[in-house]
Amino acid sequence: DFQPRVFSGVQPSGNLHLGNYLGAIVNFVALQESHDCIYCVVDMHAITVWQDPRELSRQIREVTAAFVASGIDPVKHIVFNQSQVSVHAELAWVFNCVARIGWMNRMTQFKDKAGKDKENASLGLLAYPSLMAADILAYKATHVPVGEDQKQHLELTRDIAQKFNNDFSESIAAHGFGDAYFPITEPLITGPATRIMSLRDGTKKMSKSDPSDYSRINLTDDADAIAQKIRKAKTDADALPSEVDGLKGRPEADNLVGIYAALAGTTKQQVLDTFGGRQFSEFKPALGELAVSRLGPIGEEMRRLMQDPGHIDAILAAGAARAEAIARPVMDGVKDVVGF
Ligand code: ADP
Ligand code: NA
């Protein structure tokens, strides 16, 4: 009987893009109606790969600005950055001692991000899912909205919670915490578009770390940049099909139709009802216009907020104090349970 609570995070590790927006932030906004929500700028995750310190400070503020500009309410809910609440690091250490090395070695994101030279990846990159479990469980969060790429990490959070509950079951009961200290968190992979692909390669996910700026639409892109990137997006030469089945084997077309549907709040079939049989030369300008109308105001509000860093820092400081007030007693309980 854990009270419902939502936690999720976004890394301040580069350009926030359309994938982050449709795969994560749109859901963060919607969940505010029904849940208590905690949204975290996960700066400690960002440094698992090298970050320029000055850039990092700016990016922390930019993700915060994106949250607020997209409609997250930092007064009703909690918005903060991870490094300001030390429970995340403390609990991650305990989880490093609960999780198994083999579990970490199986993570596909580690394999992707570490590349060929795995011995030279940071130890933090390998242990990343353990910190992510700490982020979530420090608040005993029951629901985590994420994109599809985070599914495997979420399963690991569940495994860690389960193993902690089992390994310490006697101590948990003896300290009056019943039969489970941590909830088994549910992933919410439900948004309008759980997997947005690169505009340059329909088989790769749109990502902050893609070296090509034309691969993604950044939330800070202005109207011209958005329109141009969509115009230059890779496509095949055929007209759009009139049925969703016709998108099979056409990853770029499928991706663009999916983006249109997500931005318009309709289905791919409804998009094809309008655009089936038409060429990309007609579809792309329509998609560009739609993207500009949805993202333009958010980018503008982000730029406005970024002009007052002190205001953003105040939002983060207030959020950190409220997050700490929830997480600290959870960590105190962990210490008792572990025997510290
Ligand atoms: P990135 O993968 O670009 O570095 P993060 O790891 O900070 O971004 O992810 C932030 C959130 O955005 C996560 O919930 C993640 O699942 C979601 N997300 C990231 N890329 C995509 C994408 N291409 N499509 C849908 N959701 C995505
Ligand atoms: Na990710």
Give a description of the structure:
This protein folds into two domains: about 5-195 and about 310-340, HUPs (Rossmann fold), CATH 3.40.50.620; about 215-305, Tyrosyl-Transfer RNA Synthetase (Orthogonal Bundle). With about 350 residues, the chain is mainly alpha-helical. The protein contains 14 helices and five strands. Strand 1, helix 1 and strand 2 form a beta-alpha-beta unit. It starts with a strand and ends with a helix. The radius of gyration is 21 Å and the shape is globular. The strands form two sheets. Strands 1-2-3 form a three-stranded parallel beta sheet. The protein has a two-stranded parallel ribbon with strand order 4-5. It binds adenosine-5'-diphosphate and sodium ion. Adenosine-5'-diphosphate binds next to helix 1.
In short:
It catalyses: tRNA(Trp) + L-tryptophan + ATP = L-tryptophyl-tRNA(Trp) + AMP + diphosphate + H(+). The protein is mainly alpha-helical and 340 residues long.
Salient structural properties:
5 strands, globular, Rossmann fold, three-stranded parallel beta sheet, single chain, 340 residues, binds adenosine-5'-diphosphate, two-stranded parallel ribbon, 2 domains, binds sodium ion, mainly alpha, Tyrosyl-Transfer RNA Synthetase
